[in-house]
């Protein structure tokens, strides 16, 4: 029985990057032998075990054979005679198909070191084409390693996989898992560029795919193309260290621009509500977690009004905060504002501009939130007021509190051009 460090841990060490987790492959062992040594079996589809002390994952060397469509269409063999080279051959990319022995010796049968030196993402073997998840994984690695290019033969293989319908068999949970991980990488735009290049984006997220080629007003969007703008927004969200809900909100904030009637372009009147409608479809299809869904919905509907909030009256400002549910969920406002900042700064020539609405709305919420609503409600009840009448009293008090913060000449209500 021999044990090897494999995959990402070996790759990251060669890249000089911090290793998050260690994965191990065991050659020449059986499931019974692993259990006898105290390892805890946890694998559902193939034998994976937790080390009795470190709790790191140890998998038996295995081969796989395609038996059906999609991610689960495989039969695995994990007999003790499976070699390390056979196990590495089933991996996706050459840079992930290296192993390190206990004495430090590097096993690199598929020239992963060469591809690290030349900064190339290359598939190990034609078996790559049997698993559509590998398209998503490669796209995610492109976002993690933005200075790597995709090998021409690998790009062609991915296009062929999409054309043959393999991507249509991806399950929603796995698509979301890889998408979420890719959004959190160093340059999220690279993931979408790779997916778009092979045709997978049109299959998985047609609402996003259709944004390329859609023009915007050049005076506000010097980059003009909506798809280009979206990629700049995503990369700004990474630059500003945004959370996953914020990055997902950035991804979906302008979906409605892809359905703007041609006769009104480059203006996008009402795109906010159309974005919220399309967002709902995306979230249902990919089973997006509620935290991401809810934040993205607010940002889609209100980002235009937030951008213009500097010029709003006190009354319009309070109504905007109410629609943001900021009085009930004040802890969510920073995320909403960060997504809007990414949108505002994700434009050509605006990358270093300060986003003034952020601090102004935070201050307005803090001031309005200081109003003693419990006292106001008690006084209103004594006067015989009920329900909506009490809410109106509270709203007016908040407006009065915010009034000194607003500009002398202000818009009475936000519009949605």
UniProtKB/TrEMBL annotation:
Q: Which reaction does it catalyse?
A: a tRNA precursor + 2 CTP + ATP = a tRNA with a 3' CCA end + 3 diphosphate; a tRNA with a 3' CCA end + 2 CTP + ATP = a tRNA with a 3' CCACCA end + 3 diphosphate
Q: What is its EC number?
A: 2.7.7.72, 3.1.3.-, 3.1.4.-
Tell me the Gene Ontology biological-process terms attached to this UniProt entry. RNA repair; tRNA 3'-terminal CCA addition
The positions annotated for binding Mg(2+) are 21, 23
| InterPro entries found in the cross-reference section | CCA_bact, HD/PDEase_dom, HD_domain, NT_sf, PolA_pol_head_dom, PolyA_RNA-bd, tRNA_CCA-adding_enzyme
Q: What cofactors are annotated for this protein? A: Mg(2+); Ni(2+)
Positions of ATP binding: 8, 11, 91, 137, 140
Cofactor binding note of this UniProt entry: Magnesium is required for nucleotidyltransferase activity. Nickel for phosphatase activity.
GO MF: ATP binding; CCA tRNA nucleotidyltransferase activity; CCACCA tRNA nucleotidyltransferase activity; cyclic-nucleotide phosphodiesterase activity; magnesium ion binding; phosphatase activity; tRNA binding
Please tell me where CTP binds in this chain.
8, 11, 91, 137, 140
Q: Name one Pfam family in it.
A: HD
Keywords of the record, alphabetical order, are: ATP-binding, Hydrolase, Magnesium, Metal-binding, Multifunctional enzyme, Nickel, Nucleotide-binding, Nucleotidyltransferase, RNA repair, RNA-binding, Transferase, tRNA processing
- HD domain segment(s): 226-327
What's this chain's function? Answer: Catalyzes the addition and repair of the essential 3'-terminal CCA sequence in tRNAs without using a nucleic acid template. Adds these three nucleotides in the order of C, C, and A to the tRNA nucleotide-73, using CTP and ATP as substrates and producing inorganic pyrophosphate. tRNA 3'-terminal CCA addition is required both for tRNA processing and repair. Also involved in tRNA surveillance by mediating tandem CCA addition to generate a CCACCA at the 3' terminus of unstable tRNAs. While stable tRNAs receive only 3'-terminal CCA, unstable tRNAs are marked with CCACCA and rapidly degraded.
Q: Quaternary structure?
A: Monomer. Can also form homodimers and oligomers.
What more the UniProt record tells us is: A single active site specifically recognizes both ATP and CTP and is responsible for their addition.
Its UniProt domain note says: Comprises two domains: an N-terminal domain containing the nucleotidyltransferase activity and a C-terminal HD domain associated with both phosphodiesterase and phosphatase activities.
How is this protein named in the record? Answer: Multifunctional CCA protein
